[in-house]
Amino acid sequence: MKDQNRQLLSGDEAIALAARHAGVALGTGYPGTPSTEILEVFSKLGGVAQWSPNEKVAMEVAIGAAFAGARALCTMKHVGLNVAADPLFTASYTGVTGALVIVSADDPGMASSQNEQDNRRYAVAAGLPMLEPSDSQEAYDFTLQAIEISERWQIPVLLRVTTRVCHSYTVVQSRSDSTPAPEASFARDIRSRVMIPAYARPAHRRLRKKLAEIQAWNETSKLNPVIAGSPMLGIVASGISVMHAREVAPEASLLKLSLTHPLPLKQIEQFAKSVQRCVVIEEGDPYLVDAIRAAGVRVEGKAEMYRFGELDVARVKRILNYDLTAETSPPPGKPPQLCDGCQYRVVFEALRKRDCIVAGDIGCYTLGVLQPFEAIDSCVCMGASLGVGLGLRHVLPPDQARRVVSVIGDSTFMHTGINGLVEMVYNPPATGHVLIILDNSTTAMTGHQEHPGTGRKLNHEPTNKVTLESVARGIGVERVFVVEPRLGSVEFERALDESLASGELSVIIARRPCILIAKELKRYEQQCECPK
Ligand SMILES: Cc1ncc(C[n+]2csc(CCOP(=O)(O)OP(=O)(O)O)c2C)c(N)n1
Ligand code: SF4
């Protein structure tokens, strides 16, 4: 008979399922590979999930829910945690009344990101317990475990996953024995929740005490099992590296770390002493090895060359064999391209023709950097197109400054572009500035998610719409153009020429839905019975 509780799931799906089983009252986040599917699946399973305009807001909404005693989940990709770092660092002081699980989905190897930062460092810097699953079963189990730790110590917990764990499918046996979710109810606790210095100082001490308690608990918890093997070779690993290590050296003794902050250092020391050679296998930064060595425990790490990109079986074999010879790089694949018929093509052709200096941003449109356009001159992080464009305008000689344009997508504008627009109005460059918002009615890059400008919620049901032109005018830009970038139409080019020549502040909203969601948009419109 088929066991209904056994399913083949990705890590993302497993987190969503566990959150549902644990009665998580609210899931918040902002899309970003490889985390996006968590909230989408959580919503499909009947959970209440919502996209926020950015990760900082998502984190704050989740903190509010956890202050109210509910179980909350907040998801984002690794760079999202930079945006959410401000509330994160103080939420560890305030603590929570219910549970707060923060998923950081890291992207070693940068399959779909602008950097490969290792967010395990955030757990240390912000003072958060951190769990690192190595497959979907653990993604499920550790989500439940994170809720338990969060409720027991009243502290937010970081669930740190990586691309391979998020997107690989393994069997998950689900449980039905998790503790029932508490009802949300407000209990006043001013000293814990209001971080004026007088209350924050003791809060910091409380946090350190909690972490010391969690560390002591972690030393004997079942979360960091030793898999007995040869006394000649011991491996310490966490996350996906556990899988690679098992495959390369099945005979080795293995200390499999799961709660990787605060680390069970006594247990690690004991393990290291029990084997002749002890090697730490970890992807990304030397986080584990640095912490273990700082505690005076002698272990081997990996050579610097293995810090870059994902680990795999072949690379772990090389690490264990002290192999420092050059690695062969895989043959270059076909570079990605804007879709045929993409509405952005017209925009980039026009910018290139005018030799504009383009401060770009992150989204599908970043592909405008590649041939045949090569029409983007910078791309730093989400929302940076405005600030960078303004900086260029401020210092370049006027003949160059007048050619500077910032280009941003609609979702990215809602995310952190709005702040840049406020800066543009507040500190206008002498030559003015031109902002182009590419409004394709979706967050295309991460798989077509909704955002505040689409007028639809995460599950595509209608909601209030934040209109780009109202925002631009409301912030104080007088010259706002709304045009449709279409092949054969001069509308966009005319608005661009007028804006560049004016020497004033201009916003051009280039509005045309992404062709890949044309069908869905029609369906949503038909379903929507509300007045337009
Ligand atoms: C801080 C941060 N969060 C999330 C992401 C993932 N991400 C990159 S671009 C983007 C939004 C793209 O949407 P939009 O600006 O509308 O451009 P489109 O892809 O639709 O052209 C997202 C969510 C990221 N790179 N950085
Ligand atoms: S998905 Fe949409 S926005 Fe992205 S390149 Fe294709 S058509 Fe353009």
Describe this protein's structure.
By secondary structure, the chain is an alpha/beta fold. Helices cover 40% and strands 17% of the residues. It has 21 helices and 18 strands. It has helices at residues 11-21, 37-44, 55-67, 78-83, 85-94, 120-126, 136-153, 163-167, 190-193, 197-220, 240-248, 265-273, 287-294, 313-320, 344-353, 384-395, 398-401, 410-426, 468-475, 491-502, 518-527, and strands at 6-10, 26-29, 49-51, 71-77, 99-106, 130-131, 157-162, 169-173, 226-227, 230-238, 252-257, 259-261, 277-281, 357-359, 404-409, 433-439, 479-483, 505-511. The relative contact order is 0.09. Thiamine diphosphate (TPP) binds next to helix 4 and helix 18.
Structure described in brief:
Helix 18 packs parallel to helix 19 (468-475). This protein is an alpha/beta fold and 532 residues long. The protein has helices at residues 11-21, 37-44, 55-67, 78-83, 85-94, 120-126, 136-153, 163-167, 190-193, 197-220, 240-248, 265-273, 287-294, 313-320, 344-353, 384-395, 398-401, 410-426, 468-475, 491-502, 518-527, and strands at 6-10, 26-29, 49-51, 71-77, 99-106, 130-131, 157-162, 169-173, 226-227, 230-238, 252-257, 259-261, 277-281, 357-359, 404-409, 433-439, 479-483, 505-511.
